[in-house]
Amino acid sequence: MGSGSGALAELEAAVDVLLAEAPCHESGAHLHADVISLQRIRAKLGVLAAATLSEWDHALVWAEDGSRSAASRLARDTHTSVRCAKQEMRRARQLCHLPIVQAAVTAGDLSLEHLDLLGSACTPERAELFAQHEATLVDQCTVLAYADAVRLVQYWCQRADDVLNTPTQERRAAKAAFYASSSLDGMVVLNGQLDPIGGAIVTEALRRIEHELYLADLKSGTRRTPAQRRAQALVEMAHRSQAAPPNGRMPKPLFTVVVGDHTAQQLCELANGTVIRPSELVEYFSAAMLETVLFDGPSTVLSVSRRRSFTGAIRRAIEVRDRRCQHPSGCDEPAARCDVDHIKPYRLGGVTSQFNGRLLCSTHNRHASKRDEDPPVPDERIVTRLDEFRARIRWRETRNPVIAPAHWPPGAEIAEFG
Description:
Pfam families: DUF222 (PF02720)
Strand order of the largest sheet: 4-3-5-6
InterPro entries: DUF222 (IPR003870), HNH_nuc (IPR003615)
Distance between the termini: 43 Å
Domain HNH nuclease: 313-366
Structural class: alpha+beta
Oligomer: single chain
């Protein structure tokens, strides 16, 4: 990169000048514009760094001093961790397979996180299919929040694996592992990873018990961090596993799955947005282990499995549908920390239904100055018991749908679910 060395020297000099200047902005708008510009420039430099790293890697420059790997040499000479260096090397090696993604990042339409996300989807097995659908995936990702882009890419990976007959479920099961070891001072160190459904079961149980401990701490005046409460919640889970539910009550569902009907028939994911296959749910259909929320389109809930009262079912349906705070600013506070409130206030004639309810975090719901004024109320759709019955029959009959290539790449019908 001989000709580029001079340009890099000029770039570094320009950065030094900016760093030497005392930050002073005429207004908040100018400050915001500079923040966004710097992030866009950072993304462009990230692409440039990846391209340069790729050339450096292929030329084996890193091996000239006897280094064991490119990541080891990069980490040592840049004073970073090997883990960070490995991430940089992965990005560099993926870049040549992602020309459209690269162009979108340099144009400011996508971020470096999108580059890594789509790069992880473009495995050697999926490379040919990815090349066919790269433009469509980029188009969808540019209009989605990042969390929704992750779900979109997960759906694409699932369908690609279906076409390639890749045993996704078996691969996930093989990666599951758990380790427990003791430190020198007697503390127990836990580490591991679980498949999506197993992980949802464990994290939901931890969340519930941690919340119980939080309420108990408030009442008693005890001060503990969330991490400390989660550690205690894990111990409490072990205690409870040895006892039957109090008073013989049925336990709450261990996890929630979102499934689709008609306009969203390819939808199948956990409430946290992780994409799964219907076949992965088979062993959980009995008892109260599984709660299903059946959608028809991005905003209509046809059914919530009978595990709660009618009011509770509506609330739960809204939580699973919205996933996060629905304030137009794009707030990403998760459902577990949000209120469910009327869009058109009850005192003004607003009805209590899934169509007039939405999630808002406490900041956007309880502070009048931050709450959006006159938000639009979606059109009501009457969902009868017959609609629900028919939808549930269809779901039972299609627990193992075959997803044909004609159905993809996943487009707006999946992207709408945000």
